[in-house]
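Q: Got a minute? One more chain.
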Amino acid sequence: MSDDNIIHFSPWQDFNDAPAAEDPFGVEPDPVQIATFLDVVFGWCEGQIPVRGFVDMGQGKEGRPHNVWMDADATAAGKLATFANWAWREGAAVYVIPGTVAGAGQAKAAEVLQMQALVVDLDAGGIPAKLAHLLRHLGQPTLIIESGGRTSEGAAKLHVWWKMTEPAEGAALASLCRLRGEIALKVGGDTHFRSAHQPIRVAGTVYHKHGNQRLVQIREHHSVEVDLDEFAERVAEMPPLPGAGMVASGSVTPDKPRLDDVLVTPVREGGQDDWSRFEGASAAIGHFIRMVHEGRMSKDEGWQAICGYNSAMLRPSWPIERLQRESERLWDLHVQKNGPPLVRLDSAAPAPCEMPTFTLGALLDDTSPMPEDIIAPRVLTPGGLLVLGGAPKVGKSDLTISWLVHMAAGVPFLGFTPPRPLRVFYLQAEIQYHYLRERLGQIALPARVLAAARETFVATPKLKLLLDTEGSMRVARAIQAAFPDVGPDIICIDPIRNLFDGGPDGGGENDNTAMMFFLKDRVEVLRDYINPACGVILVHHTRKLSKQQLKDDPFLALSGASALRGFYTSGLILHRPDEDAPERKLEIELRNGPALPSKLIDKVGGQWVEINPMNERLVRAEVGAKYDAERVRKQEVILSILLEEAAEGRLYTANQFAEVFENKGGLGGKDAIRDRIAVQATKGTIKFVRNAAPYGLGPSRSRFGYLCVEGMVMPLGREEVDPETGEVSPARVAVLPTHYKSPQTGALLEVENPHIWVYPEGDRP
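A: Always. Here it is, folded:
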């Protein structure tokens, strides 16, 4: 009896001198080993065990996978033994995902809730040396299982298990999977077990590949349990195995047919050729799936190639339904093992797609609730595209950052309201890292907004890439790393110009074909891959328009092709109505909602605020602005003269000042000067001193007294010596107000604390 043909012992065969023959009944499942395996892998877990039955390749048999879920309780051993007997008769292998899920139908990595055992799959190379390395550094395992396969050197492939002291879940489960991958890298095992949903053969079931029936049998079983944290320390201390460590096991199996042969060799049903139709179709489909996954073929091209192989090489061809089903199954497996597509970002298997249509009646009868706005009211809708345009240096990036941080905090901004704190990814290509953090620190945002958005707002430093195939891959990876569990609600690209990819023809922003390629094949594909329901914000430059053109249609100012305006769902234009004024105007255009009025906004105290449009001049705005500037200038001249005169030892009443400085410094006549002083007294920038005796002056005949401004000092007519430095300087005394003018009644009131200069609310200069 050879190692490759393990059969049950039979006394009759010992005395039979006829040539050796394979046992016609094969190798039966062993329920005792199945029960032992379940106790080690699931004994303490709660939930359901995902079980898989796959027809082993190389038998000339075909069949669909059979998936069942069993409760992880005392009945599991009997149920799994029954399933194993069925699989044995069908030539199918039995696998489990070595963790429990909440319910039937669940088997994804994110759906695995508990695991209580850690496994290493040794399936290639010097397996005895790898096992000895594990035993030396990690200690005695709980189970060593011969999986049924053999290496090219004839060594049995092994599954090595360590049972934990308690089930791992949550962060501990993630740590357990990470350890599985790290051990595999260090000894040259199968690194696919970094994923929680990677299936593995069940001990006590039967291996059938290529007609070699072997029991997946337990070689060693020890009552060993390990603590996860202590085991992690052992793994960290274990060095890589020389010659095998840090290299994943190979994926090429010697007994598989060469792909070049498969693609050009017809294969007939009934196992008449070197490989079966199932093997040939699986190899060809897998090849074209890899081509699509790596971006070397489009989804449609991949599907056409699969259909072409089916028609030309399978005799007879598979039905189209089976071909599509097998393509989708293999695509799902490929994505599970290799991650999302890297370049084209197609999120579906290579298969034909259908175009949805709706009758008028269906549309009228659908009274389901409208989807919730990402940013209300209808400014950014699920799957929508918003373009924010503005001239260079108008403040659009500053406005964008403030807006996005508020959205990430779930706080309204300029009347734009998020339904909750949003997950925001800010992809920007203008501001380098250090200047980005400096700008974020300088933006005067409320502390509660900053605290709420610390984790939900993610930004990139200045990127040096185009949003082409490679750039799309890098961006997708970055977004997935930033939001690994749930995709973002908003992806913002700032600006379009620095990331624009016009496609294979290399068109620029002014080319409608290139712009449509960028929007459909880059931006939309990225959005659909990451989260089809998320909103996209594109920040864009505007070109120079005349004031009349800007007034008639501000959205004509968007740079580039007209296709952009026809594509977006919302448009915003930020511009200055008056180049000499600080206020900006935000024009709004919506496709998915009623028109919104434009907003007049400005930065006040470092924060963006909306200005009441009723305060905006409608008639002779430019002349009025000049008058405003002149009044501000006169105010500053009056205050500076008062400070300078006091420093020379002179104080003035309002009338005295107006008479002395008439037509000086561009202040105009004395009546105009008195009016300016009266206004500034009401605003609190000028107050009064009724008792000037401390400053060497007599009483004033004015009802209000001498004029006083903040920071005013007078000389005392003597010198003083600094006790520390010995420096001699003129002695000075601060001039403190005793009275102020009430902004409500104009009455003269006493100052409560002359050392604290108080301004009426909102009037501080």
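A: The CA atoms of residues 405 and 453 lie 6 Å apart.
Q: Perfect, thanks.
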